Amino acid sequence: MGSQWSRDKVYNRAMKAGYRSRAAYKLLEIQERNGIIRPDDNVVDLGAAPGSWLQVLRELTDGKIVGIDLNPIAPLEGVTTIVGDFTQKEVQERVLAELDVVNVVVSDVSPKLSGQKSYDQARAIGLGEEALAFACNVLKPGGNFVIKSFQGELFADLMNDIKEHFHSVRGYRTKSTRRGSTETYIIAKSFIGRKDGA
Question: Which locations, inside or outside the cell, does it occupy (predicted)?
Answer without folding.
Answer: Cytoplasm
